[in-house]
Amino acid sequence: MRVAVVGYGYWGPNLVRNFSAHPDFEVAAIVDANESVRQRASTEQRGIRVVADFEEIARDASIEVVAIATPVATHFSLASRALLAGKHVIVEKPMCASVAECQELTAIAHRANRVLMVDHTFLFTGAVQMIKQLAQRRELGDICYFDSMRVNLGLFQQDVNCLWDLAPHDLSIIDYLLEDEVVGIDASSYCHLNPGFPDMVYVTLHFARNTVAHLNLSWMSPVKVRRIAVGGTKQMLVWDDLDQDQKIRVYNSGIEYLPADQRNSMIPQYRIGDIYSPRLPKTEALAGVVDHFSRVIRGDENSILSPERGTKIVRILEMTQKILDGAPTAGRQVREPRS
Fold first, then answer.
1. Domain housing 266
2. How far apart are CA 223 and CA 159, in angstroms?
3. At 124, phi and psi to the nearest 5?
4. 55 near 143, Cβ under 8 Å?
5. Predicted structure pTM score
6. Structural domain ending residue among the three candidates 71, 99, 119
7. What 8-state DSSP symbol labels residue 338?
8. Contact (CB, 8 A) for 211 and 146
9. pLDDT tens string 174-221
10. Burial of 315 (0-12, 13-18, 19+ CB in 10 A)
11. Please, are residues 131 and 277 in contact by the beta-carbon 8 Å criterion?
12. Strand residue runs (E) in 2-53
């Protein structure tokens, strides 16, 4: 399948490299409106056509797949034109700038009978796949909480705030692992550089099955941290994505109470057990995304990066943004409408 990669900024070169390495794909074109970026692409990707006008790609019947890595405000326009031209599409996160755009884009994909996927790359990391296996095998027990810290000094974005830039990673991971519905949201934000454009955001999500997830998101931290703690009734774990040797540590620890008729007080019993670090595969997550995309197009797998999942993430982002903007429905009483 011949592929056009649209956008050759930060993520575009990674897409070109991974699509080029897959036996089912051939990168035939790169599209970017910026002349200096096109010159760089021509130098780095010799033999691949580099163009400025997306319509040239949309009209090219030999292009079967379009991968979009452009600012979120352009996702709907580019993806819809590609789908209407009969091409399969994978688009970077977040899927679109609004739920309405997501829903319309999903409908276009269904009518065109084309595959539309959202590149939530973290779902194909060895760490997330391992946590999913632990959860499915019930080794963690019932998941009680997620506590995520995703902070760094920058990178400041011009088209989205800190929430829309960083939260999609955590939201996609939590949605994949929990398969549950958000029933309440608490959120607060702080704007240190640009008024009305948060660079620090704190979000707490309340789920139907009584799980809670807390997200600490920031472009203002002096150090880079990518860490998630997952607490279960049987075991707990910490995933430190920057630790190259032991990304996941599983703790056989917890808190237990005696039955009410056997205790004289509410003092819990603390269980402190062993710690182990499971071995994780070293494969690149984006290579897994590209392979999954191929299998979904061929009809061999159901998508875990579906537009319905992408819409769910944008719905949570949109609701949280309303809270940060001071909407009258803000607070824990907000309930997520079901798709």
1. 123-285+315-324
2. 23
3. -105, 10
4. no
5. 0.90
6. 119
7. P
8. yes
9. 999 999 999 999 999 999 988 888 999 999 999 999 999 999 999 999
10. buried
11. no
12. 2-6, 26-31, 49-51
